[in-house]
Every structure is written in C-alpha cells, then in structure tokens.
Specification:
The protein is of the alpha/beta class. Strand 3 (about 85-95) and strand 4 (about 100-105) form a beta hairpin. Helix 16 packs across helix 17.
Length: about 750
C-alpha cells in the first residue's frame, strides 16, 4: 500500500494533523539527504504520531483485494499482518494448510534499483541462515512484477509490540532475550552476515518451545540492511554496488545505531550489532530509549557524542552484573567494547548459569549437533579472527585518526565446506565423555522440570479471562482474590470503578476497540475510576473513560497504577500516588499534589493547565501538552516540587493562542530539568519565580510578548545550552551581556540579537 493512502485515512479519522505530516516530511527529507530512505507512513509510526493500535485499526478499512489473489510458491496471500520500511508482510497459506509470512517489496520502492538490491540482499542473507533464533526464510523470487520473500510465520508479537502492550521487560526475561539474540547474531556473523538493524521491532517473541521452560523463543528478523561478507572479508558484489554503503552514509535506526554506524563508517563488524542489541535491551528494561531528540539527526549526533546513562537502569532495579555487561556493550569506542560475541555470551552466562544451561541444551537439540553449541567455556577453543585497528589514508596521503575504526582480520579466515564461505570458522567444542554428558543431561532435566513448574505457576497469573459489561462486576470481585488479567469485550461498562489493595496485580485490558466506561448518573464529585491506598502493580489498557464533569481518574496516597493506550475525558488527579500514563489521549489535564508522582510518556494532554503540579514530581517525555480552551493560565503550572521534561511540545491551539497563555510556569520551590522542549503560540514562554532550572538544553521558545520572564537568582554553574528565544522581549530579569570578551556566553548570560536570544 502506498504511504499516502494510509496517511490520508489517518487524517480523515483525525488520528493525524497536517502539522505532524509536515514534520514527518521534513524528517524524511533530512534522512534522504544522508542517504537514508524512509517511507512517510513508516516515519509517522516511528515518531509516535500514530500508535500501533491505531495503525492496525486503519488497515482494517483498507482493501487488499488486489493482493489477496496473489499466489507465491504455492501460498495464497490472506491478509496484511505488518508493514515496514521496505514493504508489507502478509499471512499466507498453502493447500496443505501450512502457514507462512510473505514479504512483498513496495511497488514504489521497487522502482529504485538500490531498494531492489537491498530486498534481494535480505533474501540472500536470510536464506543462508538456519537457526532456531532467526526467522527462517523459505523461498524468494519475483511473481507478476512483485519481489517476494517467503518466511516462517512467527505467531507472537515483536519486542516493540510487547513493550507497547505490557510495558517494561523484567530483568530475568531481558537476560534470556539478550542470550537468545546474541547466540543468533553470533551464528549470523560466523556465516558472513552482519545484521546492521537490530532493534525491538525486529525481535520477534514466538511462543515457548515444547518442553522448554521459557516465557518466549526470540527470533531476529528483517535482514534488509544486512551486510553479506564473502571469503576474504569483502562485501559481496551486490553489496558493493549499493549507493547506501558509501562512506558518510548512515544505515539503520537512529535510536539503536552504534556511533560508527551513525557517523557513516563502512568498515562495520560484529561490534556494531553488539551495541545495537544492548541499546534494544536498554529500551526493554527502562521503557525508553537511551537518547532522545526532536529529529533523527539529533539522536544520531547524540549516539556519537553522548555516553549511555546507565543510572536509570539501576533505579529500576537492574543488577550490577547486568549493568556492567551493558556498559561494555555500549562503549562508544569499538576498542573498549566487547570484541566478539563469545565474550558477550560468556558474560551473559555468568548472570544466569542455570537458565543458560537449559537454553544451551535446547539449542543443541534444535541444531542437531553439539558442534553448533556455543558457550563461554568454548571461547578458549574458538578460532574466531582477532580484531585489529587500521588506519585510512586520505587523498593527500595523510593518515586519518584511528578512533572508531575497526575491521576483522582476514589472516585467520578459512573456507567452509558449505555452499557459502564463512568469515569465521565454526567454533569447535571438545567432545565430552559419555559419563559427563549423562550427568549434565540429568542435571539439566532436573533444572528444566523445576523451571517449568515455576513458569507454569507464573503463567497462570497472566492468563486472561474475557468478560462482558454484564459479568464485569462479578469477575472483578473474583479477580480480587488472585492476580489475573481481565479482557473486556467491547461495550459500555457502568461506573464508577473502585480498586484497592485486593486488586493489586490485576490487569484490565480491552479485548478490542469500543470498551467504554462513563459517568452516566454520577455526581461531579465522584471520580469515574478510583485507585485506593494499597493498590500496586495495577494496569488498565485500551479503555475509553468519559467523565464530563469531574475526575476521570483519582489516585489516592500509596496507590501505584499504570494506564496505557487509553482515551480519557476528564481530569486525572494524583494525590500522593504514583501514576504512569503511556500512549494516552487526555482531555481534562493532570493534577499532582501531596508528594504524588506522575510519569507521562508518548501522550497528548489538552487543557489549561494541562499539568498542574503542587508539591509533587513529574517525569514527562515525548509528549504534547496543548492549551485547548480560551482562558488565561499556564499549559504546565508547577509549584514546589520537581519536574523533568524531555522531548516535549507545549503549544496553544487556534482557540487558546490569542489569550494570555503561559507555556511553562515555575513557582517557588520548583526544580526543573528541561531537555529538547519546544514552546510556541503562547504569550509568555517560561515564567519562573524563585525557581531553579539547573539544566536547560535544546529549548525553542516562540512567544508573542516575553520569551523568558525570570524572578530571583540564577546560579552561574547552571548549564544552559542550545537555547533559542524569539519574542518581542526575549528575556527579562536576567542581565544581558554582549559576550565579546572571549568568555563563554552561557557563563555571561544571554545574548540578544533583534528580538532573538540564542545560546549555542
């Protein structure tokens, strides 16, 4: 399907604004300038303008009649199951009832020779790889002018979908995921394939294998950007023809790119995939990416220049061993990063030896030979080629810096007896004695049985029970006696809802669109959903909540709850509680008081104020706060507390922008950290009265009268960088100095230039 059909459908259904489309087009052009082609619809999804749920709903209304009749390798295409940067993926079935996934190259992209080569490269790369943790490619070719790739159908979500639906990944599952993907990427590297686009969207979580105690079986997919290396360590002929493989061009996804890839280096090796895998696991553990920015260019710049901050992982409970492992994998310098997958696998095994032994046994059985089993103990017998640093010479013959340059040595490469040559010989594993094998087998069986029992018990707590409006109250009462998931059928559910300590661990999730709870017959002072003290590990997903007169959600002191993919009309009041809003559309604003904590990610909040913080804390990221009513006030009003803003947009819409709207108002006792914040169409950008902003980086203020109105002292050690203010009076309350004495301008103050203040 062409981009414009989906984009137009989203605009018609008010899921998108023209402003978002224009922003995506600018991003598309910026990437094209760097040699990276991305479809408009793909970018809108990546930028969070359209949620995965909305995208799936839109595809239901799009006819695929012309494509369903297509037959590929005996398979008849049934319907679309996903879309990516290179094309669409369809479910297909043959006469025997066997299912498969068929990827078709977009007809628009097929007209470009480089895209056709990349699609062919994906087919060639994936066809040579046969591994339990790599999606198996079955056939490739062209039919009726359409290039296709037939693959195994993975009946499970991607890691990206899993995070969207269920949030962060627990540490034990993250370690398992890390090992399964690492062993697959090592296998690919040993067979001459470098993935170059490892990210959550390309990590599929298939159901557990029979008789293997595991929550999932991870499989890496999409080798569209893979680098195929033949004997001698050089890219194959088709690879070398590709325009995007030239120096200075960037391939991959910015959030997960290693520095050398973001800066356009071409001599990439296994260390690039090591970095990308760690960046993906970071995202899974924390629920957010390492670096943020308003554009891909900014994120790529940060990948090159800014070290990964691992402290947030410690704050969410990650162990020291895992953090140490992640630190090595995320080193900016390739020299200090793990050099081989054997080193990575050995470090992972130390974190969970029992679990990894079970995985090794399952892998050995699946591969059919112990020679394919790679463990840390075998690394000493491995003949993997060492890495060396090389120096390049420019056209004048002068040597360039060796920083961030590394290639695999070709001295130790050997030819493979298989159809394709390997860039590294297969790792040899010494044969064990029969007695030792028997002991290991018995031990693994015991551990497997124990783990299976534990997994079965834990799985029962997440088994969903479908309920209807008529049965909801009864089922909810029984759910209070044990942890479980309730799947709500579409319909109108009576309010109010009350959840207390007895509902700790309960998840309420919409089984489909159209699940609503409203305030029919409720007084204005009765909240629609109340989270009472003692409530913990409670989540609501995909529900529409409507309270036209009062609070849609009230969370009381001590409660902890998460609301995801919800459309909410009415206030969210957080009084001493901890509430997380992910991918939420909220009309009514958020009020935080009594030391409450609000975490708002990837959401849109409309009201004046959109957020009112009174003696509490707010963590805001990748969200829009919109003044949507014609009244005076602030979009975000914060008094006495802490607020962290990262990648936010504060804006007044057409109705409100003519009024006395303040973008961000900080009053006595507030400590604020602002990064990548845009404020526009307001009268005053930031109004601060005896507040503290120790860090302000990447701020754009466009105000009608005053950009920054400051009252109180400004500490000289505060770091204010990349600040742009455009207003009739850019700054009041802070001395403006010319900065012509050679000192850093941010140390002196702010520099005015014809109504514009800028700090670089």
């Amino acid at each position: 399907m062409e981009d414009h059909r989906l984009v137009q459908l989203a605009l018609d259904n008010r899921m998108l604004t023209m402003e978002q489309v224009d922003k995506a087009k600018k991003e598309q052009q910026a990437l094209a300038d760097r040699g990276v082609e991305r479809g408009l619809w793909f970018l809108l999804l990546e930028m969070g303008c359209v949620t995965d749920v909305q995208a799936r709903d839109l595809r239901k209304y799009v006819s695929s009649t012309s494509i369903r009749a297509l037959q590929v390798e005996g398979y008849v295409l049934q319907g679309r199951i996903g879309s990516g940067g290179m094309g669409d993926v369809f479910r297909a079935v043959n006469d025997k009832g066997d299912e498969a996934a068929v990827k078709l190259l977009s007809s628009k992209l097929a007209r470009n020779a480089e895209n056709a080569r990349r699609f062919q490269r994906e087919a060639r790369a994936s066809m040579r790889l046969k591994h339990p943790h790599i999606t198996q490619s079955l056939a490739a070719g062209e039919v009726e002018g359409q290039r296709y790739l037939v693959m195994e159908l993975v009946k499970g979500p991607s890691l990206k979908q899993r995070m969207t639906e269920r949030g962060k990944v627990p540490e034990d599952q993250a370690i398992l995921l890390l090992w399964q993907v690492a062993i697959a990427l090592k296998y690919a590297w040993d067979h001459g394939v470098l993935h170059r686009d490892v990210k959550p969207a390309n990590l599929m979580l298939a159901p557990p294998r029979p008789n293997v105690p595991e929550p999932f079986c991870a499989k890496i997919c999409d080798f569209g950007l893979a680098k195929v290396i033949v004997q001698g360590g050089e890219p194959d002929e088709e690879e070398s023809k590709g325009m995007l493989t030239g120096a200075g061009m960037a391939l991959g996804t910015p959030h997960y790119m290693p520095p050398e890839q973001a800066s356009g280096e071409i001599d990439l090796d296994q260390r690039a995939d090591i970095y990308s895998l760690a960046a993906s696991i970071y995202h899974a553990l924390l629920g957010q990416t390492m670096h943020h920015g308003k554009s891909s260019t900014i994120i790529m710049y940060k990948q090159v220049t800014e070290s990964a901050d691992l402290e947030p992982l410690r704050q969410v409970g990650a162990g020291d061993g895992l953090i140490k492992l992640m630190s090595r994998m995320l080193e900016k310098s390739r020299k200090r990063r793990y050099n081989t997958w054997d080193e990575v696998l050995g470090a992972i095994k130390l974190l969970a030896p029992g679990m990894i032994k079970i995985q090794e046994a399952a892998l050995s059985k699946a591969m059919g030979s112990a020679a394919h089993l790679v463990s840390a103990s075998s690394s000493s017998t491995s003949s993997s080629a060492p890495l060396k640093t090389v120096q390049n010479e420019n056209q004048n013959g002068a040597q360039k810096s060796t920083q961030n340059v590394g290639v695999a040595s070709t001295n130790s490469r050997r030819e493979s007896s298989s159809e394709h040559a390997l860039i590294h010989p297969t790792v040899r594993v010494k044969a064990s004695s029969t007695r030792r094998s028997f002991v290991v087998l018995v031990a693994c069986s015991v551990v497997a049985c124990m783990a299976a029992a534990g997994w079965w018990l834990s799985a029962q707590s997440t088994v969903g029970q479908r309920v209807s409006p008529a049965t909801f109250a009864v089922v909810l009462a029984s759910a209070a006696q044990q942890q479980r998931t309730l799947l709500l059928e579409p319909g109108d559910y009576p309010g109010p809802w009350r959840f207390g300590v007895a509902h700790a661990g309960v998840t309420i999730r919409a089984a489909g669109p159209g699940v609503r709870v409203s305030n029919t017959g409720l007084a204005a002072d009765i909240p629609l959903v109340r989270c009472e003290p003692g409530l913990a590990n409670f989540s609501v997903s995909g529900i529409e909540m409507i309270h036209t007169q009062g609070a849609a959600i009230e969370a009381m002191a001590g409660a902890k709850a998460t609301f995801e993919h919800c459309a909410i009309s009415g206030q969210v009041v957080i009084s001493g509680a901890q509430v997380t809003l992910n991918h939420v559309q909220l009309l009514g604003g958020v009020v935080v008081d009594l030391q409450g904590i609000a975490t708002i990610n990837d959401s849109t909040v409309r009201q004046v104020p959109a957020l009112h913080l009174r003696d509490g804390r707010a963590n805001l990221s990748r969200s829009r706060f919109i003044a949507s009513v014609a009244t005076d006030g602030a979009i975000i009003h914060a008094v006495n507390g802490q607020i962290e803003c990262d990648a936010l947009e504060l804006v007044a819409n057409e109705v409100a922008k003519s009024t006395a709207i303040i973008g961000l108002r900080l009053e006595s006792g507030m400590i604020a950290t602002l990064r990548d914040v845009a404020i526009r169409d307001v009268q005053i950008g930031i109004m601060a009265s005896h507040a503290q902003i120790p860090a302000m980086n990447g701020i754009s203020l466009y105000a009608r009268t005053t950009g920054l109105l400051w009252q109180g002292p400004k500490a000289s050690e505060w770091q204010w960088e990349r600040l742009l203010i455009q207003a009739t009076t850019p700054v009041t309350g802070i001395p403006l100095e010319a900065g012509n004495d050679g000192a850093r301008p941010e140390r002196l103050g702010l520099i005015p230039t014809q109504g514009v203040v800028s700090i670089r």
